[in-house]
Each structure stands twice: as C-alpha cells, then as structure tokens.
Amino acid sequence: MKLISWNVNGARACASKGALEWIKQAKPDFIGFQEVKAKAEQLPKDFSQLGFNTLYVNSAKRAGYSGVATLSNFKSEIFNARFFDDDEGRVIEHVFGNTHLFNIYFPNGQSGDERLAFKMDFYAKFLAHIKALAQAGKSVIFCGDVNTAHREIDLARPKQNEDVSGFLPIERAWIDDVIAAGFVDTFRLVRGDEKDRYSWWSYRAGARQRNVGWRIDYFFVSSDLASKVKNADILADITGSDHCPVMLEIDL
Description:
Keywords: Hydrolase, Magnesium, Metal-binding. Its cofactor is Mg(2+). Residues 4-243 form the Endonuclease/exonuclease/phosphatase domain. Belongs to the DNA repair enzymes AP/ExoA family. This protein is of the alpha+beta class and 252 residues long. The chain contains six helices and 14 strands. Strands 3-4-2-1-14-13 form a six-stranded mixed sheet.
C-alpha cells in the first residue's frame, strides 16, 4: 500500500497551479492533505477527478483556515478527532481492520504562548489516544504536518532556531516521547541519518532553491508495523506548496 501526506497550504491555490497532476501517475492508495483551507463544497473539482473511491473533508469552523482532507481507495470507517474538541478541522481518522490511520494537521505554536500551549495540549491528548490504541492491540499509522523538527539533522539551521517554536526543547521532547512509546519515524527507519532532507521551506529569500528547510512532515507507525515498512521518502521535487509530499510504502 502506498500512502502520501501533503500540506498543500490552500487546496484551491495548489490546484490552480496544476500541482495535483503527478498524483495520477503516482497512484497512491491514500493521500492525506493538510491545511486545505476549504469546505468540502469549495474544493476544486481537480480533487474529485483524481480517481479515488472516497473523498472526505474535515474543515475548520473558521472560513479559509486549517482543514484536512483524505482521498482513499479502501473501505474504512471515518471519524473526526475523538480525543480533542476539533473546531479547527485538524484530524481525520480512518479505521480498517485492526488499523487506525490518522491524517493530522498539528497546531503551529509560533504566534505566541497561548498557541504554543494549545499545541502542547493537542500533542499530549493525541499521544495518550494512540498509546491507548496500541495498548489495546491496534495498529497505528499517523501522518501529517507535525510542525516540529525532531533533531538537529532535521533542519538546515538548528542553532539559529533553538528558541523558535517548531524546534523548542518541549516540542522536540514530545517526539522523543512518541518514539519512547513505541512509534517509529518511518523516514529515519528507512533512510537512517540522511542529511539535507526537508519537507518545508519558507517562501522568503529563496529558501527552497537553497534548500534551507525543515523536516516537519512525517509518517509514524506503531512498532508492530515497523517490519512491514517497505519504503519511505520525501518527494522534494513536487512543487505547488511551501511543503512537499512525504510517502510511505507498507504491506497492510
């Protein structure tokens, strides 16, 4: 099964650039979009014409903000957040067989202490939720824009960003806790300590052209699925957003 995650930073803007055409050739079984900034009826027809069986959208109450959407070719039960009051349209959970697959746009904490606290609360409640699932014998996959780079290797300028949300010690420690709980960063599982591999670049100062980026988009799996991971990669050649897609191939 091929799974893709992509923060499109506005579904309408991304589609207007013709940036979805590569998906037809890639032929994933699932693609999770974050930050779609649209309600279901506002999504461009490009999304419904990509050849998937199911399109599902969880949009924010606030217009033009946040929101996630998934396209899938398998049958599943679909839920919004069951661990958090999700007025911002951040979570879609697919349940099929013994597997829980999450597409999540995690909060950004850069606008101040209140939003950082919101982010950390979201982090804590989500980790408690997936730990409970794993302890109940469920398999878990989660993907999306986590909005935190884990290690110094995961961003181009770690020293300059030590005091910036997205690389704060408390945020990085949460990813440590995710891994300590038995969840596996599939990119590092497959790619080891490959350097200069990023999934987000600022629009400023030609950051993408100079590869001054951050790896903040992930696929994690529960430990029982680690041996089933066949490939994981960052699709940095795909443009249309300030993020690029990330990919997981797994036997399910």
